[in-house]
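Researcher: We're teaching a course module on how sequence relates to structure. For the next exercise, students receive a sequence and then see the predicted structure as tokens, so they can try to spot secondary structure elements on their own. Here is the exercise chain.
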Amino acid sequence: MDIAVAIVLLVLVAFVIIVLVRAVRIVPQARAGVVERLGKYQRTLNPGLTILIPFVDRLLPLLDLREQVVSFPPQPVITEDNLVVSIDTVVYFQVTDARAATYEIANYIQAVEQLTTTTLRNVVGGLNLEEALTSRDQINGQLRGVLDEATGRWGIRVSRVELKAIDPPHSIQDSMEKQMRAERDRRAAILTAEGTKQSAILTAEGQRQSSILKAEGDAKAAILRADGEAQAIQKVFDAIHKGNPDQKLLAYQYLQTLPKIAEGSANKLWIIPSEVGEALKGIGNALGGSKDGQFNDGLFGPGSDAAAEPAATRPAAPATAPAASATGAAGLPGQPEA
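Model: And here is the predicted structure for the students to work with:
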């Protein structure tokens, strides 16, 4: 008797435990559960503690309400120019209605995959290879619009669709690589030519500016030398006028400059200017000439035609004679032979 009572009590305890387990359910955050009562939809459980009627209510598997990322395997797609490309897609979606995701579609992940494949073929089929490679944003936008519209009644919101990779055939890849290398070689040749051109232009510009600056420097140097010579001549001229030289000094200086004409190893002839007589006459007057301006004991005698003839009537043709030695015939330094 006692054993039977103990068995009954154990059965009752086990039943109570089972009832409590089936009656009390805790739904985690970002999860949702669908409750069926006697096989019919009754309600959707929100996160928190929930009491169910055991053996009457049945809780279906919880659904994840967070945004999910599903990567689908590569799909072969034929482009407008009859090239087969392999495209990998990634879909971001989120369950917004647990009831619709449970009763409106059997497997929403597989449905999204098949819908993405068919939509992708329709979109890429109207583009050529180059447009398919460069129009990813456009393809993503079209895919998202079609998927979001179709999956809305399934209680799913597609937030984003991305093309992970577009792989053309290997032969097309080789052709594209050759085209890219040719294009880069062309750009390199153009850049090299542009660099050479710029270098030549800069070199020519530098040479031109250098020539201009050199010419300007030479012109300024010539102007400065001319100004210096002019100032030197002006100073000498002013000094001579301030010193007020007489005829005797001028005649002496004139005779001193005559030997410089014969300087140099290439001089074979020495042309005596016609003014030598006047200079000698001035020297003679300075050294002891007569009162009438002629030499008494000078270089020309009283009967000399050169001394008696006025300077205005003497011939102006110069006489030529061999170059004089260091001491002239008249005893003066550097004086030529008459």
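Model: If you want an answer key for the exercise: Residues 171 and 236 are 96 Å apart (CA to CA). The first helix runs from residue 2 to 23.
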